[in-house]
Each structure stands twice: as structure tokens, then as C-alpha cells.
Amino acid sequence: MKLRNIDSKKTLKAFQKMGFEIKAQSGTHVIVTGYINGNKKTFPIPIHHKEIPEGTINDIIKREAGITREEFFKYY
Prior knowledge:
Helix content: 25-40%
CATH architecture: 2-Layer Sandwich
Shape: globular
Strand order of the largest sheet: 2-3-4
CATH topology: Metal Transport, Frataxin, Chain A
Distance between the termini: 14 Å
């Protein structure tokens, strides 16, 4: 599945549906924290533009959250 630019607010809501909570907001980035497969994850989600670029969302999903695209899109 090819990623495209996706809505930043929907991305934040998707991670909240997965059980992540907003820890803080630093300017135009929201810091979320939560558990995936028993591992605590904390990472920023940019909300300064309406859409998050393809490369950035790919890094958030794979590197930061450590989940697959399919897992993410279940909640998006």
C-alpha cells in the first residue's frame, strides 16, 4: 500500500484510538506516549500543516511507533 500525504489531525486521533495519550505540545508538534506490544513509545506528531508528508508519516509509523502501515490504517 502506497502512503500519501495524510491529515495531521486524523493521524493524532488514530494514535489516540490506539491508546496513546497526549503528553505535551511543543509549538506545532504534539508529543504522544503509549504502549505497543508492551513497549512504551513516545514521539512527536507534527500538526503545523494540514497534511503530513508521505516520508514523515512513514517514519512515524515504522521507526517511532514500530507498527505496520496496515495496523495504522485500521485506526485511521
